[in-house]
Design a protein that fits this description.
By secondary structure, this protein is of the alpha+beta class. It has a single domain, classed as Cytochrome P450 (Cytochrome p450). It is about 50% helix and about 10% strand.
Length: about 500
């Protein structure tokens, strides 16, 4: 009984600390009162059944939102957990809301709800504080730094696949999650995650899955009210202990003049002379904690899902796999050597496969903003305080924007000379948004492109994973777009001397 009371006390304490992170900062923008009065709404799904459907798993948010968008182009309306939600599916309107009027919107309730896990990091912060944090982190993602990271990416990939065996069956989602977590630990925080990688990865995966419905539905009360939700908040404590140890170790190394060339060291040492006095010139441990958690989540989860979907797509397209083999042997030799950062410029089809995969299966599948002022979008009055959603899943699969929109066609990303070109598909601005917009565009975009390209070439030139026959693969739209029940694949070793 005493142990039970202690456990309950610990859970409540963890929930209280998570609640403190969830408390909005004092300078968080507040939507102005709407002056529209009664407004006419666009058509869309109706009824409380939307929430019940999403919670039960009978339908996935990406499919539900896509149907609503296609049937009610260019703006669909639905009511979710007390909010009026508008889905915009015209690229011009997406640009209008997310880019042109970026100062008049804030992050949507999904990411605001994720404060329980992420605190006030780059994904969730707003205004001057967000710009300050971005300035402090930006140097870690300059081209010269990413060139340094490339070697670690390839080394970790080679080490990871050295344990694979011919004919072995694995869950590729687990494999890629483990690999990308190791890469994030090595490149951004030294090797500090190595000893805790399994616990950290398993706990983070559980939290991502658990918070997935919260992010899709956007109702924090679900987490606070349900016992399962409170247990999730307690799980955050396990990650916090690891992160605090990493911060303490880095601070000690810096004091001893042995600082490491990684992101966390740069963030600890960074001074921001442009920031207002109320933020201070350097990050506190709480601020560092939030950015570490954000970087770990954004830095490994999205790439892990992209790589998982890449192996799935290639397993269904043997002809494209054959062409990739030809490219790797041409660029990397026979047998293939380990790729380098400089090789990326010649890996045109490899990059096209990455682009086409994240078009069809965008890891960051939804973006949300809350309007701070009244807006008129596409002829409709959108009151202040509304939620506006723009979805890469919907835009990237729109048959009016893309030729053979739901087909896997990497060649759409190659120009007439066969070179990779992001503009090659010729779609309008706002139709291709895998990394977001403007000053909210993913700070690690080039990190992600580099990592996915090098991992595909490193692993793919030596192994061909194939989907286990009879496997039904479905999407699970949580914090990221994941294969719903994992991705069982069989590992097949390539012939080393194939020309």
């Amino acid at each position: 009984m005493a142990n039970l009371r202690t456990a309950r006390t610990g859970t409540r304490a963890a929930a209280a600390r998570a609640a403190a992170r969830r408390t909005p900062p004092a300078d968080l923008p507040v939507p102005a009162p709407s002056q529209f009065g009664k407004v006419e709404r666009p058509n869309g799904p109706i009824g409380l059944g939307i929430i019940a459907t999403l919670i039960s798993g009978r339908d996935q948010p990406n499919h539900l939102f896509e149907r609503a968008a296609r049937e009610n182009y260019p703006i669909a309306h639905l009511r979710m957990a007390g909010d009026h939600v508008y889905i915009v599916s015209d690229p011009a309107l997406v640009n209008e809301v997310f880019l042109d009027n970026a100062r008049d919107v804030m992050k949507g309730r999904g990411l605001q709800a994720a404060r329980s896990l992420l605190g006030n990091g780059l994904l969730t912060s707003e205004g001057e504080f967000h710009l300050r944090q971005r300035r402090l982190a930006q140097p870690a993602f300059h081209k010269q730094r990413i060139e340094q990271y490339a070697g670690h990416m390839v080394d970790q990939a080679a080490q990871h696949i050295s344990t694979w065996g011919q004919g072995q069956q694995v869950d590729m989602v687990e494999q890629m999650t483990s690999l990308t977590l190791a890469i994030v630990g090595q490149t951004l925080f030294g090797s500090d995650l190595t000893g805790d990688a399994q616990m950290f990865g398993e706990t983070l995966a559980e939290l991502i899955s658990g918070f997935g419905q919260l992010s899709a539905i956007g109702n924090e009360r679900i987490v606070r009210a349900l016992p399962q939700g409170r247990r999730l908040l307690a799980k955050v404590e396990d990650l916090d202990k690891v992160v605090q140890r990493i911060i303490d170790d880095h601070r000690a190394a810096i004091r001893q003049g042995q600082g490491r060339p990684d992101l966390l060291t740069w963030m600890i040492e960074a001074q921001d002379d442009q920031s207002s006095d109320r933020f201070g010139s350097a990050m506190t441990d709480d601020q560092l904690r939030d950015e570490v958690m954000t970087m770990v989540l954004a830095g490994h989860e999205t790439t892990a899902m992209a790589m998982s979907w890449i192996w799935y797509s290639l397993s269904l397209e043997p002809a494209i796999d054959e062409r990739l083999q030809a490219e790797w042997h041409e660029v990397l030799g026979t047998p293939p050597r380990v790729p380098t950062f400089d090789d990326i410029a010649q890996l045109h089809l490899t990059r096209a496969v990455v682009a086409e995969t994240i078009r069809l299966y965008p890891p960051a599948w939804i973006m949300g903003r809350r309007t701070l002022v009244d807006m008129t979008i596409g002829g409709w009055q959108i009151p202040s305080g509304s939620i506006v959603l723009g979805s890469p899943w919907i835009l990237h699969r729109d048959p009016n924007l893309w030729d053979s929109a739901t087909s896997f066609k990497p060649d759409r990303w190659l120009d007439a000379a066969g070179h990779f070109d992001e503009s090659a598909p010729g779609v309008p601005r706002g139709a291709w948004i895998p990394f977001g917009f403007g000053n909210r565009r993913c700070i690690g975009e080039q990190f992600a492109w580099t990592e996915a390209t090098l991992l595909l070439a490193t692993i793919g030139s030596l192994w061909r994973p194939t989907l286990v026959p009879g496997t039904a693969v479905q999407t699970q739209a949580a914090v990221t777009l994941r294969p719903r029940n994992g991705l069982p694949m069989t590992l097949n070793k390539r012939s080393a001397d194939r020309p």
